[in-house]
Specification:
By secondary structure, this protein is an alpha+beta fold. It is 39% helix and 21% strand. The chain contains 11 helices and 9 strands. Strands 1, 2, 3, 4, 5, 6, 7, 8 and 9 form a 9-stranded antiparallel β-sheet that branches. Helix 3 packs antiparallel against helix 4. The longest helix is centred in the last third of the chain and has 19 residues.
């Protein structure tokens, strides 16, 4: 015995230009029929919330699947899977496609080489699937955009729930972020964390989809923008606060990566707020009270 609900969509060529579109969504539970063997031309994320079963890929090997888990179905890859017939499983799936899938794969959010992925939980993923299901009501004029946006959310939720990560994400990335503003080389960062430079590069590439240098640069430039926009600190002081002793080098680096010089960036913001800066993130529905 099993229960199933599903909807399928056909986004227009214009919607495909958004980069990621949803092709279908389903919620199923029980002793579901096996899927395949088959090969698809698009991606599917199959989220297993409870129960167990099996997966067999192109190499013919059978892998046990135990919830919570994610099955990646990727284009052109033969696959065959199903729940244990006696116990069944609780499954939700989302079919999607678009040019953004290549970037998500490069960043490690989609893992073609790892079709069965253990998860810590499925709460965030199920919430994203739920948004797609609610958007799937007949006659919804925002269907394609709403469901496409929810696929982005789903990919982030699945990456966050990947087993082996802490509640705040990858511990290596968290440690790097804490030390981001120290004037340290990649080799020195690696040494501080008990790793070789090669091990650090591998870990950061796996966790953030980029090199340690680019990861640190993104954090430093983000903070530099905050200081330029919300303080009157000289550019040289901003440079030192984000880890650069040479303000000329910082300015060249900022200009090359941001596309405008630090001074010009500050002029464009026009919102210097001496004394009003806060590191506390406000709740969107409960902004802090402004007193005069």
């Amino acid at each position: 015995m099993y229960h199933t609900w599903m909807r399928y969509f056909t986004p227009s060529p214009t919607h495909h230009k958004l980069g990621l579109v949803c092709l279908g969504v389903g919620l199923q539970h029980g002793a579901l029929p096996t899927v395949g063997p088959r090969t698809l031309d698009h991606h599917v994320a199959v989220v297993i919330s409870s129960g167990s079963g099996w997966y067999r890929g192109a190499d013919g090997r059978r892998t046990t699947v135990t919830a919570p888990a994610l099955l990646w179905v990727t284009p052109g890859v033969p696959h065959h899977y199903g729940p244990d017939p006696e116990t069944g499983w609780d499954e939700s799936f989302v079919d999607f496609t678009g040019p953004a899938t290549a970037t998500y794969t490069e960043l490690g959010y989609i893992e073609p080489e790892r079709p069965v992925v253990p998860l810590t939980d499925t709460v965030g993923a199920r919430a994203a699937v739920g948004r797609i299901a609610r958007a799937a009501r007949r006659g919804n004029p925002f269907l394609e955009v709403e469901t496409g946006a929810a696929v982005h959310e789903l990919l982030v939720a699945l990456r966050r729930a990947r087993a082996g990560l802490g509640t705040d994400g990858d511990p290596v990335l968290q440690a790097l972020a804490r030390d981001a503003f120290r004037p340290l080389s990649v080799a020195e960062h690696a040494s501080r964390h008990g790793m070789t430079p090669t091990e650090l590069r591998t870990a950061v590439r796996r966790g953030a989809g980029c090199s340690p240098k680019d990861y640190l640069l993104g954090i430093r430039l983000g903070r530099a923008k905050e200081l330029l926009a919300a303080t009157e600190l000289p550019v040289a002081a901003v440079a030192r606060r984000v880890g650069y002793d040479d303000p000329a080098y910082f300015s060249r680096l900022f200009t090359r990566r941001v596309g405008t010089a630090p001074v010009r960036f500050r002029e464009q913001q026009g919102r210097t707020v001496p004394g009003g800066w806060s590191n506390q993130i406000p709740h969107p529905e409960h902004p802090p009270t402004i007193t005069t």
